Amino acid sequence: MMKNDQIMKLPPLLFSLIMSLFALHVAADENFSEKRRVMIEEINDTVRLTSDYIGKTTLDERVMAVMAKVPRHEFVPDKVKSYAYANRPLPIGEGQTISQPYIVALMTDLAGIDQDSIVLEVGTGSGYQAAVLAELVRHVYTIEIIEELGQQAERDLQRLGYTNVTVKIGDGYHGWAEHAPFDAILVTAAPEEIPEPLIQQLKPGGKLVIPLGSQIGFQSLIVVEKDSAGKIRRRDVLPVGFVPLTGNH
Ligand code: SAM
Q1: Domain for residue 206, yes or no?
Q2: Helix (H, G, I), strand (E, B) or coil at 240
Q3: Is 62 helix (H, G, I), strand (E, B) or coil?
Q4: Is residue 248 part of a domain?
Q5: Strands (E), 107-158
Q6: 2: which DSSP letter?
Q7: pLDDT tens, 53-86?
Q8: What are phi and psi of 131, to 5 degrees?
Q9: Which residues contact 36 (CB under 8 A, 6 or more apart)?
Q10: 119 neighbors 111 (Cβ within 8 angstroms)
């Protein structure tokens, strides 16, 4: 980093070029925070529109505060950066997507987590959902089946200072037994049946939030709750459209 007095000794033309670049950088940042503010309004509108499904008209304010803070534009490829705060999924390469912000907020809300929670995410993708979770819990373990995406997400999460996220490349169908049990498990790709290992790795009192269904038929976001006696209860929340949970399991 240059000190101020060093900058002042630069030739005037170079100095003004540096200052204009700095002004551009600040303007771009301000633009992103304004876009993030609009995104929050759109999420709140969608929550109200879907309140009959989700059973509430607002989401947890801690979740919404994090949605207003995490830089989604840092998790998407350059060519879609200007759409980073649109309330919709975006392509992240390898035929995969970063989820719609409303869905990220809703799944985080439904997981019922707090600052002591240990969470498993299946389907790291861009790393954005993991970053949102990381702001709210003690540790996030996240599994991505496509190596290039998992490695890129890990680099982005490290660059942005998320030290409480561990990324693994593998088939998340099997969960991550070494770090189980989990207070919450979020799955961001849709299987047709609930993976049995994920139910086993859920703590009593914990919640599994998962889209379920086929690619050609109906998919539903469901919440599976395990009570203190280990009994399972399932609640259908909302019709959704997720990419499939792949892998040879
Ligand atoms: N949570 C992601 C984010 O914030 O960007 C969105 C994920 S995208 C909708 C679903 C991801 O799940 C894809 O990156 C896909 O490769 C991954 N996936 C699909 N099947 C998987 C599996 N069996 N294990 C782990 N990841 C899987």
Answers
A1: yes
A2: coil
A3: helix
A4: no
A5: 118-122, 139-144
A6: -
A7: 999 999 999 999 999 999 999 999 999 999 999 9
A8: -65, -40
A9: 68, 71, 72, 85
A10: yes
CATH of the domain at 82: 3.40.50.150
Residue 74 in contact with residue 160, Cβ under 8 Å?
Answer: yes
Task: Write the single-letter amino acid at 128.
Answer: Y
Return the beta strands (E) in 161-229 as ranges. 165-169, 182-187, 202-213, 219-226
Max intra-chain CA distance, the chain: 73
Residue 244 lies in a domain: no
Q: How many domains does the chain have?
A: 1
Residue 35 belongs to what domain range?
A: 31-239
Nearest by Cα to 155 from 124, 176, 185: 124
Tens digits of per-residue pLDDT, 9-51? Answer: 556 555 555 555 444 444 455 589 999 999 999 999 999 999 9
Q: How far is the CA of 142 from the centre of ligand 1 (A)?
A: 10
**Which residue is it, tokens 């980093």?**
1
Is 245 inside a domain boundary?
Answer: no
> How far does the centroid of ligand 1 lie from the alpha carbon of residue 145, in Å?
7
For 191: left if phi > 0, alpha if psi spans -120 to 50, otherwise beta; the answer is beta
Pocket mutation for ligand 1, best pick of 103, 246, 248 (most atoms within 8 Å of C-beta) = 246
Position 177, amino acid: A
User: Does the C-beta of 100 come closer than 6 Å to ligand 1?
Assistant: no
